[in-house]
Amino acid sequence: MSQIAINTSQNVNINFTTASVGERMLAFIIDLLIRVAYVVIVLYLFFNILDLGYILNGLDTWSVMAVYLILTFPTYIYPVVLESLMEGQTPGKKLMKIRVVKIDGYQASFGDYMIRWVFRLVDVSFAGAVGLISMIVSKNNQRLGDIASGTAVISLKNNINISHTILENIHEDYIPSFPQVIALSDNDMRIIKDNYTKAVRTDDRQIINKLSNKIKSILKLEIDPTKMTERQFINVIIKDYNYYTGKDN
């Protein structure tokens, strides 16, 4: 598996391991099985439980195809909808511990997932050979949809210890200070913690200042600098996020 350096909005490079072709194929197969199961269940309900097969009698071919399209429509939008709701994951990706991310370090948007979904029509052509070849020959194991949307699929399995993740040790009696942190996503917090950890290691006060101001701006917070330093503020934000989202190790 190769490494990909994602440049965050604070101009800090974070190295991730790209998901292997095998991991992505297994995730695809899992999602495919889920969609097939959905189709089997829906058709069984339609024809056997609800006994609505008579509706198709006398319909022309196009009308019959339209009925089947309506019944199976969720399977077609499955990837784009779930990736949008699960922050770059589908059940298959979640099980394989891989995720879609933007190469520029920002959270992928619905538009990015939509582009990936549209290009899927090309990637799956010739029995999926187009997408497979693209992943094999591209630098970051990207299929055409990834290249077009500026995304990559990374592995989440390379988090060796708690300092490399969004997880933070908090005591059971910990009292949070900023409930506004629930507006942040896992990807936001990962970027915050990675930036902060590197800035502390190099004593880069400029990055710490920018990161602190960015968090305050996003969450609309005003902090008295005489009561809490920027480092203390960011530490509290990280711990509060873990508290409210129930992250544990």
UniProtKB/TrEMBL annotation:
| GO CC annotations, alphabetized | membrane
Which residue ranges does the record assign to the RDD domain?
18-150
Q: What is its main location?
A: membrane
Membrane topology label? Multi-pass membrane protein
Name assigned to this protein: Transporter
Query: According to its UniProt record, where is this protein located?
Result: Membrane
Transmembrane spans: 25-47, 59-78, 117-137
The answer on whether this UniProt entry bears the keyword Ribosomal protein reads no
Q: Which Pfam family, any one of them, does this sequence belong to? A: RDD
